[in-house]
Every structure is written in C-alpha cells, then in structure tokens.
Fold this protein.
Amino acid sequence: MRGLIYYRINQDEIANVGVYKKCIAQVDAFRNIGVQVDLILLSDKGILLNNQLIHSFSKPILSNARSKYWLFFFNLLPIIAKQINFKAYDFIYFRYALSHPSLIRFLQAAKKQHPALKVITEIPTYPYEKEKRSLIDRLSLLMDQYYRKKLAPLIDRITHYGLEKEIFGIPTIPISNGIAVQKINHSTSQPKTKTIRLIAVANWSYWHGLDRLIKGLKNYYEQKNQAYDVTLKIIGHGKVILDYKELVIKYGLDKIVLFFPPMTNKKLDIHFDKADMGIGTLGIHRKDIRIDSSLKHREYCARGLPFLLAGDDLDFSESLPFVLKCTPTDQPIELNKLINFWNKLLKNDSRKEEIRKYAEDHLRWEERMKKVITFIEK
C-alpha cells in the first residue's frame, strides 16, 4: 500500500515546529506499520517531495501576507497536481487548511485520474470558526464556508479529535493526537525545596488561556506567607505574547514569569530539565470546543512531567494522578490547588517513570494511523 501525505506548512518557519514534528511522526508511524508513504511539504525555497525540491518559488514564501495568501489558495495545489501521478497511490492523507476552489479542483483531478483513490483529511480543530480573527482569516473563512459544501463527493473520511460522527456530510474516523515518544527526551529535573517551576510551550493564541495562569499568579503572590515559590517559563511566539507580557508587567511578575523565543531539541531540553510541571491549554472553551487533544499535553507526558489543563482530553482521564484538570472558564487559576496537587505527587518517587510509561503505552501515533489503514483496506 502506498500513500501521499500533504501538509500545507512551511517547515522552515519556526512557528510551525510543533505541527512539523507531528507531520514527521505521522509519516514515521505509517512506515512503521508497513505502509509506503511520500510526503509533500513546503520550505522557503519551494515545494518538497520527500525532502527533494520539485518546484522553486520565485520569492520567499513568507515575503508578505498577500503573496502567501495567493500562493496557498490559488497557485499551490495546481503546481502540486502537475507533479503527482495520482494512479501511483492508494490514498491521500492531508491536513485540512480551509476549502477553496483550488482544493476542489485538485481533489476532482485526483478522483478523475484514479477513481479508487481514497482521500482522507485531518481536521485538527472543529469547529474552527473562532480561530479566524484577522481580516484575511475572515475572508478565507467566507470562501471556506462556500466551497466546503462541495467536499462530500471528494473526501472519503475525516480524521477528527472530537466526538462528531460526521462533518460536512462526510463520516469521521475519531482519533486523538499522538506523539513520537521515542524522539522526546525524558526530563531529568529534580524537585527543589519549596519551589514549583512551571513551563509552557506553544505558538501562543488567545485560546491557550495563559492569561488565566498569569492572573492566578498575581492573586497567589498577593497572599501572605506563600508556601512555595512558583515560577513560570513561557516559550514560543504568537499573537498574544505581547498581551501576556503587558499583564506580567502590570502585575509586577517580571521576576516570576520569564519569556523565551521558540526553540527545539537540545535548547528546549535544557528548560524541560529544570521544570516540574507543564501548562497545557487553559482556554479551549473560547473556541466553543470541549474536547482538547493538544500536542503539548502529550509532550509533557512523554517527558515525564505532570501537567495542568482545562476541558476534556480523551487520552487523559481525571483518574490519572499526574493530570490536574481545572474548569474551562475564564477565571484565574487557583495556585493553591496546584500546590496541593504537587504535594501529593512528591510522595511518589517513581512518578516520572510512570508518566513516561503511560506515554509509551497509550500515545504512540502507530495506533492512530492503524485506524486510517483499516478503513482503506476495507
């Protein structure tokens, strides 16, 4: 069996590092279960097929928002279609990035060339309307709302991290995010006396809800006789980082909350090796979404760190001792509850190994991708 994987992301853009790692992990998972796959991605230089340049851009893809918009919605897929022999594949698996006329024509051409071809798209967030806030995003959404009505005859299944059995009139394959556990280093951090070191890593948007934690830290430090020194490292860029920095300065937390740019590999490992607990998504309700399958939750788990989240992540039940769930509201996080949670964890000397073991047993991408292959084989 042979498949074509397509992610419309630029692997050279640091903001895409999390999604890029996920893409590579999915490709590896397909190969690990015996499926041959080819991968199409973008780079600053052009379009890549299995990391080989098959089309060069006349100017950098990130030169400006207008040229990127024109490329993504009008030029990109026609270029790819000319390079691809659809008959060579049993299936196409692509990450959904809104509907537009080029996507419809691309899928029509694929099905016309190869009627037996199975097409599966992954929708990472649904509903996704509240993610679209800028003017260009809203215009893109209007186009999507029209053209997605044409998808049902062209797409066979949608992989999805929620509970919906059908989206756009297309049946779903319910899965959750996975992670390449073997590629993530186990944190070597050791607890410090009366200190809790929090770490939060993401490409930050308003629905991550980190403002809730910053306000919670402000309330905590207004109390007298704090039981612990609680610090927070925020790693990554994003649309709301300036808002977070303004809150930190406003509340006088600039020695408590520290900001760092995006980083990967050994540089990121250094920070995780000095962290006690991860901070997951705290504002998923702001997108009218209840089920959360954030990659960051899985990375914290793979590193052996306990973590805080809001909402429901189906891979992490409330019975797990290393997961602290708070209510999905806009209220500040109660640090005293977090401290009580941490005190209970300290009684278990093997907690980090148990957390890592859970990731190894439950979070690998291979089990998710087997569901896709099972559908195709049927």
